[in-house]
UniProtKB/TrEMBL annotation:
Sorted UniProt keywords: Membrane, Transmembrane, Transmembrane helix, Transport
Source domain of life: Eukaryota
Transport found in the keyword field: yes
Protein name: Uncharacterized protein
Length: 112
């Protein structure tokens, strides 16, 4: 019963850490998406207010910035998928290590 409770506690702690990491990732990606919408307008707004550029230039700069940044942002948008892939690779590596240990034990038992 004690072992079962310990396994449940470990699973619950793992789930809690997973939920916290997912929440933090969602905050980051949402903030990132909103920031890239505001940043280019904020960068050229002083030039507009000093009447060095027209209003259409702000829209052009926002569009160009979003197009270029969208291409560079692939990693941010796919971070959750990349993390899931990494977790699968880690589990497969652990499984491979377990198979290696099991086969070595099996060979040792056959020789002994």
């Amino acid at each position: 019963m004690q072992h079962l409770l310990q396994c449940f506690k470990s699973a619950f702690e793992n789930l809690t850490q997973l939920l916290i990491a997912s929440r933090n990732l969602e905050f980051f990606t949402s903030g990132y998406c909103y920031l890239i919408q505001i940043l280019p307008a904020a960068a050229v707004a002083p030039m507009y207010f000093s009447r060095k550029i027209e209003l259409g230039v702000i829209n052009q700069s926002v569009s160009a910035f979003n197009h270029i940044l969208g291409d560079f942002s692939l990693t941010v948008y796919q971070f959750q998928s990349i993390s899931a892939f990494s977790a699968v690779i880690d589990r497969l590596d652990e499984f491979d290590d377990y198979l290696d240990i099991s086969s070595q034990r099996h060979l040792t038992l056959q020789k002994g």
